[in-house]
UniProtKB/TrEMBL annotation:
This is RNA helicase. One of its GO terms (cellular component) is spliceosomal complex. The chain holds residues 328 to 1063 of 1063 of the full protein. Its EC number is 3.6.4.13. Belongs to the DEAD box helicase family. DEAH subfamily. PRP2 sub-subfamily. Residues 292-465 form the Helicase C-terminal domain.
Length: 736
């Protein structure tokens, strides 16, 4: 310290107080974004934080401070330059010119429909404008809903960056099982489903001054329900502002629904897009897509590529294929930076798609529908569109929902094409024929509410006290058949009584952010004294399908490791429990995960989910109890939720769903694939080449009568399958 006192400059650096003063001085010469009157969130929090970290680390490292001082200055300058650039970018967005008009319109009207091309700045800018204009005064918040988790997270991150604040402070996001907000949060991005849940705790959304239902054109199930609910609160809360924003033209429909609300159009800029079709239909669009990417890469001038696929598996396959091709071609081609993006992509990897493409290389973003309108990636000049997406479809007769790969609509195809013409003229390569486009594609995608199992929605609406579903204000009402089916299902689960009112079980179920069947299994675990186990299973089922992985060079090891969890043919549910418990035993070690070919990411997520479910157990007063080793109890609790998913083996080795009579198969990844017990209960059906049951556990048929006597009769379990009736066996012929 004495030496420091002698050397003014050194002491200046080593004392934090003085470092702060240094920052203040620097700050004073660094005014940026002054157009905003300094109200845009201050903008310095991150700059300062960087400096403090830097000072601390330098002090700890005992580094030579003289040179470090320059580095410090550089670090600050870099951050400031970034901020300045960001603020310039904000001003270049189409919405910026309309900021004042927009604020005036919002001030004047309670409900406003906002329409603007994707990328015009609706999602990232409007909440900031509202914040600057004082809508977050008096502790009120701005909600902005997104149909997709990834969009909510990445947009929040971007806005936090633009405002120079830490994500989770002034700007945060809330998605299922992940709340990144704090007391400070005033701009809250969230999935539409999360805002729906907030109605449970705060039916008038009193803490919000503005609710922006964004990406309204997507018409997700939750967005459609939100429409009805927010329209209602607008009536009795004159102080709340409602913004419905959409990327597409069909705004009149929104306006009609919201009592002729005015439409604010943000004129977009859209450059010319050349559309190319294939001359003949492509049998294998994955292979065709890979070839097209490489062709473009070799023949086309600079510009990034956006390729649309239907889901994670396809994306990973294509990523692998492209990497391999690039390896084969070695240095003969410019570098290709492959950026996948899909809903379950880990957060750390999401940021990569927004990073600028390195000089001399080309980026190819391989995305699901998420890049159609929810996310805008700058620099895209070429779009490759195979013309498919994964869509939920629902069969009201069987009550089964499944995800299917379906052709997209014309509206979707045009949106996708438009992604290439945002910053200059672009090209779109459709991997289907023009004839296909004109004659086979529907004009618009059917709203999700008309192709979904509604049990979850009905349960939530009932929990909000909305009993009369027939007169609920739907923009496009679901088929009454589907509503009826949902009521039946909830009745069968014991969530509703015969008058259609919520029961105590139903009230408890509604607290869990899970499918009603899974919530029911948890609620039932109280009775079977195994809530610990069932909550773990529920968490594992919710954490994603990728629990195990199989590296190509270690298939045998991976399979052996996996089989160990299935020892004793306990079934897939208990195997998941075994995995979790073994991981817990290891002290939640990632080393353990590697050794057992288990995805550490999935496990971490399962742990998070589990913590939250456990907290909810407390809230609904379900006792924590462990039925150590009692597999029967655990299977019964699972069956209490999933009794509808009971299937029986047939002679040919396939299974038949007991009630729906559908022919189904055990998924090859299941631990039961070789065991094939006569009766099983399954978690879900996935349709690939066949209808496969995923997560399968053996069941005793009598349990169905014990657990769901209102749903199964003896004849359901006795009635022998097509088997020719042996004499003396089988049901007696009915007396005439
Ligand atoms: O909502 P809208 O489609 O009108 O536009 P936006 O999502 O607000 O995007 C405006 C701009 O912000 C885009 O052009 C992107 O350059 C940028 N952005 C970004 O860099 N990172 C994000 N996660 C989201 C947007
Ligand atoms: Mg948007």
């Amino acid at each position: 310290p004495e030496a420091a006192a002698r050397d003014g400059k050194r002491s200046n650096f080593f004392s934090e107080q003085e470092a702060w003063e240094e920052q203040q001085i620097r700050k004073s010469r660094l005014h940026f974004g002054s157009d905003d009157g300094g109200r845009a969130g201050g903008g310095y929090e991150l700059v300062l934080e960087g400096v403090v970290d830097f000072v601390k680390s330098t002090v700890q490292a005992g580094a030579e401070p003289d040179g470090e001082m320059d580095e410090l200055a550089e670090a600050i300058d870099a951050k400031v330059t970034l901020q300045r650039e960001l603020q310039d970018e904000r001003k270049n967005l189409p919405v910026y010119k309309f900021k004042d008009d927009l604020l005036k319109a919002i001030d004047k009207y309670q409900v406003l429909i906002i329409v603007g091309e994707t990328g015009s700045g609706k999602t990232t800018q409007i909440p900031q404008y509202l914040h600057e204009a004082g809508y977050t005064a008096k502790g009120k918040k701005i909600a902005c809903t997104q149909p997709r988790r990834v969009a909510a997270m990445s947009v929040a991150a971007r806005v936090a960056q633009e405002m120079g604040v830490k994500l989770g402070h002034e700007v945060g996001y809330s998605i299922r099982f992940e709340d990144c907000t704090s007391d400070k949060t005033v701009i809250k991005y969230m999935t539409d489903g999360m805002l729906l849940r907030e109605f449970l705790g705060e039916p008038d959304l009193a803490s919000y001054s503005v609710v922006m239902v964004d990406e309204a054109h997507e018409r997700t199930l939750s967005t459609d329900i939100l429409f009805g609910l927010v329209k209602d609160i607008a009536r009795f809360r004159p102080d709340v502002k409602l913004l419905i924003s959409s990327a597409t033209l069909n705004a009149e429909k929104f306006s009609d629904f919201f009592d002729e609300a005015p439409i604010f159009k943000i004129p977009g800029r859209r450059y010319k897009v050349d559309i190319h079709y294939t001359t003949a239909p492509e049998a294998d669009y994955i292979a065709a897509a890979v070839v097209t990417v490489l062709q473009l890469h070799v023949t086309q001038p600079a510009g990034d590529i956006l390729l649309f696929l239907t889901g994670q598996e396809e994306i990973e396959t294509v990523e692998e294929m492209l990497k391999q091709k690039m390896r084969t071609f070695g240095g003969k081609m410019a570098e290709l930076v492959i950026c996948p993006i899909y809903a379950n992509l880990p957060t750390e990897l999401q940021a990569k798609i927004f990073e600028p493409t390195p000089e001399g290389s080309r980026k190819v973003v391989v995305a699901t529908n998420i890049a159609e309108t929810s996310l805008t990636i700058d620099g895209i000049k070429y779009v490759i569109d195979p013309g498919f997406c994964k869509l939920k479809s629902y069969n009201p007769r069987t009550g089964m929902e499944s995800l299917r790969v379906e052709p997209i609509s014309k509206a979707s195809a045009d949106q996708r094409a438009g992604r290439s013409g945002r910053t200059g003229s672009g090209k779109c390569f459709r991997l289907f024929t023009e004839y296909n486009f004109r004659n086979d594609l529907d004009d618009d995608t059917v709203p999700e509410i008309q192709r979904s199992n509604l049990a979850n929605v009905v349960l939530r609406l009932k929990a909000l006290g909305i009993n009369d579903l027939v007169s609920f204000d739907f923009m496009d009402p679901p088929a009454s058949e589907a509503l009826l089916k949902a009521l039946e299902e909830l009745f069968a689960l014991g969530a509703l009584n015969s008058r259609g009112e919520l029961t105590k079980t139903g009230r408890r179920m509604a607290e869990f952010p899970l499918d009603p069947m899974l919530s029911k299994a948890i609620v039932a675990s109280e009775k079977y004294k195994c809530s610990e186990e069932v909550v773990t299973i529920a968490a594992m089922l919710s954490a994603g399908n990728a629990v195990f992985y199989r590296p190509k060079d270690k298939l045998v090891h991976a399979d052996t490791a996996r089989q160990a969890f299935h020892a004793g043919n306990v079934g897939d549910h208990v195997a998941l429990l075994n995995v979790y418990n073994a991981w817990k035993e290891s002290g939640y070690s990632s080393q353990w995960c590697r050794g057992n070919f288990v995805q550490p990411r999935t496990m971490k997520r399962a742990r998070d989910v589990r913590d939250q479910l456990e907290a909810l157990l407390e809230r609904v007063e379900i006792e924590h109890c462990s039925g150590v080793g009692d597999l029967g109890a655990i299977t019964k609790a699972v069956t209490a939720g999933y009794f509808r998913n009971a299937a029986r083996r047939q002679k040919d080795g396939s299974y038949r769903a007991v009630k729906s009579r559908q022919t189904v198969f055990v998924h090859p990844s299941s631990g039961m694939a070789e065991v094939t017990p006569s009766w099983v209960v399954y978690h879900e059906l996935v349709l690939t080449t066949k209808e496969y049951m995923r997560q399968v556990t053996e069941l005793k048929p009598e349990w169905l009568l014990e657990i769901a006597p209102h749903y199964y009769q003896r004849r359901d379990i006795d009635g022998h399958e097509p088997k020719k009736m042996a004499k003396g066996k089988g049901p007696a012929p009915a007396p005439l």
